[in-house]
Structures are given as C-alpha cells and as structure tokens.
Design a protein that fits this description.
There is one protein chain. The protein has two domains: about 30 residues, no CATH class; about 70 residues, SH3 type barrels (Roll). Helix content is about 40%, strand content about 25%. The chain is built from three helices and five strands. Strands 4-3-2-1-5 form a five-stranded antiparallel beta sheet, with helices on one face.
Length: about 140
C-alpha cells in the first residue's frame, strides 16, 4: 500500500511512529527519583559490564574493591574482593567509582613485576660494545 509520503507504506510509517513514541516512555520509567550525584554514579556504573573489577570510594572515606554485580534503580551489588561477600550499596553512599586492575597477591601490583628482558638487553648491548672495541684495536 503506497501513500503520498514519498512511497513509504502506511504500515512502516505507523510502526516507526509507535517505536518513537514508546522510547521516551520506557526511559522515563527506568530512572527513579535520584539526585544529580546519584544519577551520575548510576550512569557511570552503566558503562561497565557485570563482573568488571571496580574500585568504589565511599562518602565515609572507606574504599571498596570488587566485582560489579547487578544494578538496580537505587542501588547496586559489589562482590568484595577480600571476603567474597556480596554487598549492596546505594548510589548516595558512593563518592566515586572507577574501573580498576585486579591484582592478586602481595607484590603483584604494577611496577613490581620482574622483567627478564632488561638484563638480556643490557647484556647484548655490553657484548656488542665489547666486540666493537676488540675489533677496533
């Protein structure tokens, strides 16, 4: 069935208008009454998939580190990396969230890894310099 509107069918046009009208209604139901800071924390957590290792700074000054769980309309779950206990926190309790790198065990932080290629490179350069000095004589 063709119309005067550029050859588009009435069914396709009606479907497009229905979808456009439904999108704002769905988005309005997703966000409860959160203040600006709570919405900001919720929006930042939406960027990360469940299971992402997160560092969460709380407003009382404590830090939490663990795996991100489910996000609710007013709270989220975090599996603590030390105790493996699942904790529920409201967005109002959180000061900052950031994606973190998972370090397991003491001394495994970045900058503490032994890099075996450094002595190899130094040895090759020293051997090359010694060979050059011997050949020049």
């Amino acid at each position: 069935m063709q119309t005067v509107l550029g050859g588009r069918s009435v069914v396709r046009l009606a479907l497009a208008w229905t979808l456009l009208a439904a999108v704002p209604a769905c988005q309005a139901q997703a966000a409860p009454n959160l203040n600006k800071h709570e919405r900001k924390i919720h929006k930042r957590l939406l960027h990360y998939a469940p299971g992402t290792y997160m560092n969460v700074e709380m407003r009382d000054g404590t830090d939490r580190a663990g795996l991100l769980g489910t996000l609710g309309p007013a709270s989220f779950t975090l599996t603590d990396s030390d105790s493996n206990a699942e904790e529920t926190h409201t967005y109002s309790e959180v000061a900052r969230v950031s994606k973190s790198t998972e370090y397991i065990g003491e001394g495994s932080e970045s900058g503490h890894h032994f890099r075996p290629w450094i002595p190899v490179v130094v040895g090759v350069v020293a051997a090359g310099a010694a060979a050059t000095a011997f050949a020049v004589r």
